[in-house]
Amino acid sequence: MTGFVDLRNVRLSYGQADDATLALDGLDMSIQEGEFAAVVGPSGCGKSTLMKLATGLINPQEGTVEVAHQEVSGPVSIAGMAFQNPSMLPWRSTLSNVMLPLEIVQPHRANLRREKAAYTQKAEELLKLVGLGGFGEKYPWQLSGGMQQRANLCRALIHDPALLMLDEPFGALDAFTREELWQVMRDLHAEKSFTVILVTHDLREAVYLADTVFVMSARPGKIIERREVSFPRPRSIDLIYEAEFNDIVHDLRALIAEARVAA
Amino acid sequence: MTTSRWITLAPWLWTIGLFLIWELAVKIFDLPVFILPAPTDIWAAIVKYWSPIWKNSVQTLFTTVAGFLLAVVGGLALGLAIGWSRAIYAGLYPLMIGFNSIPKVAVVPILVIWFGIGTIPAVLTAFLIAFFPIVVNVATGLATIEPEMEDVLRALGAKKLDIMLKVGIPRSMPYFFGSLKVAITLAFVGSVISETVAANSGIGHMMLAAQSQFNVPLVWAGLVALAVLGIVMYAIMAWLEIRMTGWAHRSSRS
Questions:
Q1: Considering only CB atoms, which chain B residues are within 8 Å of A76?
Q2: Is this model's pTM higher than 0.90 or not?
Q3: Within an 8 Å CB–CB cutoff, is residue A57 touching chain B?
Q4: Is residue B253 part of a domain?
Q5: Measuring CA to CA, how many Å separate B29 from each of B24, B33, B35, B40?
Q6: Can you tell me the ipTM of this complex?
Q7: Is B144 a domain residue?
Q8: Does B29 map to a domain?
């Protein structure tokens, strides 16, 4: 069975010949369309490399990467990305930051000038959906860290990507804001039903949000465990205090601890 | 009076204070005019020689601004080229460092051989001395794009030109406008150096002529004229900077 995102026997190393670092080796991973996948693992295991592979920013030295049933050889414009650093452009208003991808990706790029009003409305609706209604005219530095991260999610989603890549998007936020944004993310996924790959260090975040949690080994990274999380949706935030939830988190934690020792 | 009023007045108070101490020191130590003229002597010279000071100031201002504008165009172009490509950066940077290390006064005789004495060597010296900080600053702005931002855009299929236009160039603008303040004051240094070595007009030439006639107050009047021009042009650049890239100076506004 082939998935929406398929990585098969992927090997990738950085650097030249002798002092090359093997980042990923024999990595297999398959994610279905609409699935919310989380990737966890010890630090330095190549999680961010995985992100770059799936979006076509880098190509593997061995193995294949397929997204939407096509082999990836260059940047895939069906993906949206959000990182831990919101990296909003300070000279643009929040609304204009959110609309930045429309100035890059076709066919929006060609239509943007003509259908400016429709696109602006779409961006404003998206901002409202993440709880930033009415903040479009504010500049990023007038927003709190949590609000910037919400805007960052909007920017990643404005061109209706089929695949959303998140690299520790909530890592730098305080605990309360983080839980709020988990719920924002949960609702966005429920509403738009895109495929998500979430790279994170936070096991509770992974288990709360994901349908499937992939555990990676220490470098060179490969998938050592695929764990399905079958809690029914929509999931209440109270779920994270239930015993069954914590058992899964415990199991995953033990796996990662083992992977770290093995390194 | 509130602190903010004091801050507004501070530049004037300090300037007046400096001139007062200067005047007093000259009187107390009874310094002869050809060693150090008092501010009142300089003022008298400014009034007496107003017409030549004005004419020469206009000449110096013209050569400085002309050289500065060339430096803006050249510096911006070269800065963008260097920031664009690592190969151009690697190739040109050592050359530029070497070139910038040459004292510009040593270049003036060469310019005179090529263009004769007068306006053109002054403009070119101002250009040569002013363009370096602009190049370095523009290139720095381009070179420090956040890698995450670049990844986000590249994953969307953005070409290098897209990233430059949407992120790199707007990002380097605060560096660029900041460098204009440095560049304009350096441009004055360049044009006056050239006028002192090889010219028939300009403040530099006027000071040299006054010195040969032992008209020391007029020499000092020339320095004051340069300082005033420098402050005015700097203020214009600072205003332009805030005007064009206010987003980068938010902390100073709030």
A1: 155
A2: no
A3: yes
A4: no
A5: 8, 12, 11, 16
A6: 0.78
A7: yes
A8: no
